[in-house]
Amino acid sequence: MTPKTQISRREFVKDAGGLMIGFSLADASVIPRLLAPLPQGGVTDNVPRSPDRLDAWLHIETDGRVHVYTGKAEIGMGVQTAYGQIVAEELDMAPGNVVFTMGDTAQTADQGGVGGSTSIMLGAKPLRNVAATARYALLQLASQRLGAPADQLQIKNSIISVKGDESKNISFGALAGGTDVNDTMKVSGEGFALNVEGMGKPKDPATYTVVGKPLFRVDMPGKLYGKWDYVTDKRLPGMLHGRVVRPAGVGAKLVSVDQDSIKGIPGNVRAVVKGNFVGVVAENEWAAVQAAKKLKVTWSAAAPAFPEQKDLYKHMRTVAPKATKETLTTGDASAALARAAKKVEASYDFPFQSHATMGPGCALADVHLDGLTTVWSGGQKPHALRKGFAELLGVPLDRVRVIWMEDAGSYGRPGFEDAAADAVLLSREVGKPVRVQWMRTDMTAWGSKGPAVVCDLSAGLDASGEVTSLQFTSRAFSGGETHFVPSTAGNFIGAQLEGIPNTGGVDEFAQWGVQAPPYKFQNIRAVAHVVPAFYDTASPLRTTHLRDPEGPATSFAVESFMDELAAAAKADPIDFRLKHLEEPRAKAVLAAVAEKAGWTKRASPKKSSGSGDVLTGRGVGLSTRNGTYVGTVAEVEVKRRTGEVRITRFVCAHDCGLIINTDTLRSTIAANLVQSLSRAMKEEVMFDRSNVTSVDWSTYPVARASDIPSQFDIVLLSHPELPSSGAGEPSSRATAAAIANAIFDATGARVRQAPLTPARVKAALTHV
Amino acid sequence: MSRISLKINGREQTVDADPDCPLLYVLRDNLSMNNPRFGCGLGQCGACTVLVDGRAVRSCMLPVSRSTGKEILTLDGLMGVESPDPVQIACIEEQAFQCGYCLNGWVLTAKALLAEKPNPTDAEMRSAFQGLVCRCGSHTRIFAAVRHAVSLINGAGKP
Known about the structure:
The complex is a heterodimer of chains A (about 775) and B (about 160).
Chain A: H1 9-15, E1 33-35, E2 58-60, E3 66-70, H2 79-91, E4 98-102, H3 124-146, E5 153-156, E6 159-162, E7 165-171, H4 172-176, E8 180-182, E9 186-188, E10 195-197, H5 220-224, E11 240-245, E12 254-258, E13 270-274, E14 277-282, H6 285-294, E15 296-299, H7 312-318, E16 323-330, H8 333-339, E17 342-350, E18 353-354, E19 362-366, E20 373-377, H9 382-393, E21 400-404, H10 416-430, E22 434-437, H11 440-444, E23 449-450, E24 453-461, E25 467-477, H12 493-498, E26 524-531, H13 551-568, H14 573-579, H15 584-597, E27 614-625, E28 628-639, E29 645-655, H16 662-681, E30 711-716, H17 730-733, H18 735-747, H19 758-765
Parallel strand pairs in A: 3-4, 11-22, 20-21, 25-26, 29-30
Antiparallel strand pairs in A: 1-8, 2-3, 5-6, 6-7, 9-10, 11-14, 12-15, 13-14, 16-26, 17-24, 18-23, 19-20, 19-22, 24-25, 27-28, 28-29
Helix pairs in contact in A: 2-3, 9-10, 13-18, 16-18
Chain B: E1 2-8, E2 11-17, H1 23-30, E3 49-52, E4 55-58, E5 71-73, H2 75-78, H3 86-93, H4 103-116, H5 122-129, H6 139-153
Parallel strand pairs in B: 1-5
Antiparallel strand pairs in B: 1-2, 3-4, 3-5
Helix pairs in contact in B: 3-6
């Protein structure tokens, strides 16, 4: 969220009226204009800022602070702090004086919101250009004011002065505060890739003094002191509290709702029904909680839409694919396999996983069909949500404003979007602002899921152990079955229950070389299939983006299989990988992680990893993702009798090009490792024929304090000469394989089904 | 509905509430005290933690009627910005969290732990934290913050 002290753009513009500076500009094409205040009406014009103006992005306040407007959002990894460093660097000002408005559709440009680890990778670029152009504009203005050529000016801590005579100076605030320093920005790209360029050219990274520093996060004190508003804390006068009541199972139709069943609850409770969408509203939260629980709803029988859980992977391997893509063919893999001296085959399974966000999803909607609808949501893509809600309400786009406020870490499209749609539907029906707070089961059971993925691999080795053939086939539910860009009415589960057809998403494949490293082999064939969704409408097993979509699952297969091949070739797992890699940066992270881990070269499994019940081992995994390279080593202890695995140490070498903040990067990597450990060891969505039965933290266990390794060694490979790539997801990717490989190293047992539960490890041990 | 008196962060407050209503909703809804956060409503995650007579308690499970006559402390009442608690300082200095939604549980549980065991072993700390969820995976930083808080309390500064 934005700090409470922050003054809105509109207020500032209003306040700034008296500070307008008259300026006559000799050459308007070169010297930036000082514009009149923003178009009349401020935010009430409710149009996203046109990105072709500098003042759409940045405003200099009277106190000299620089207020940045961005369509991006903070989802917990510290991007706002990093953005502040980027802006402060270009403007030679204190990062603490850069303040942000994020993700308010009426005040920011549509940058596609957050996703794909692109907030720095792509989002830093326009911000850097904007700040550099603001610098250029300020220097031009100061040049006139101070009577010195712009190239004779310097900026130190927001003060522009004449080089060699610092007594001639003027501050940002005094120079331009409250007005709009403006320039035309050349726009290219859209969504995540939206870029703007103006007159200012960004600094040479070699000269950076603020970017790259481990500055503290701007949000940490407020959060620790209890002075931070999340979206859950937003209230409006006269608002009602809403809860949803989901169907008895997938495909169940509403038969009846007994309003009398909640009559006795004080707080003006009432049920709201629209198609199969059922919700309750009440004047206070506890009443809404009770009403949702007590409301007597009769549903028709649910559809037996899902297979038995034990048959899930068999189903995925036998059902006719919805879409198929041959992603890579080099040479003739099957002919080479036929000639092979040795054949290795393995199949890997990765389950549905739940976003299961820490807060289950909350939003506040104030619907006015004849006026302006405002929705507060923590969804990662506020501008897309605005489109979705306009369509849902059947109103023009300019009648909807979405204001992003921070929610719990979202890690994709968890359902915060659906909770917001629920609030929109309820507010529309009752004519009052409605705050919807999902209960735990609404998120864990009914929130969208990360897709299950199965991968089948085979390889042929010649007599000398060289791999001559490799075949990869994946079958996955699409990572975009529910479109991760929530810009249509049918995107939301509440809308689907109401009767709006599912607008569907895209086929997203689990691909060799994309979701896992692009290892090179003489003959290779890689095919990816998308498996059809189980049920088209309002399914609790509908899939969408969960942190690094398909990445952990595909990588689990490929990185485990590389280990199996290394073992078959009796080669060291890192050496074996290096032999099949071309990219220097991929090799470099493997070398760096090996060095930090104290990795000794040898083949797995370990000859003797202990005589007692506890065996120890080490395993490696590589992640390459859109220009980011991560090598992860896991060290484990395996209890032979129980199959219990304890990860004792993670070592991670990480290269994401130019680093903006080394400390937020380290903390994001450590958190990635823990979350992906949780997914590797614990997380599996359980279901019966019609329902998800993982409904809370006991039926959907995640990593707890006892599961956390004692030692984390993170090595950052800094490349200031290279552009930044993403860091939000890549270090989640290789963890499951690194752990599985370590279990193999310790025990000789190969676990090919995630999560790597004690039961599965124990079962694998019996085959050793 | 009953009139219920509560002592929160040292202040007497009176609310009209259903005696069975969990303290969490009274704090949030009646009193706009937003720091205890709704995470599960089942006592499984700790996001709603408050201190009740110094003990870390899940406010989503505690009926408000059983909160009377007790000292209730929330995160923001733990200390003001002027005099933050060592646990808060340590969490800031270790940059302990990602999204921070869960932090009421960790901070207040740490506070209760350190009051009882000023220098907990790693096992004691993990055991105290076992009932908490941090979905982001900030655990390593949080553990470091607890160790740092111990040294702050003992006057040793940053380790």
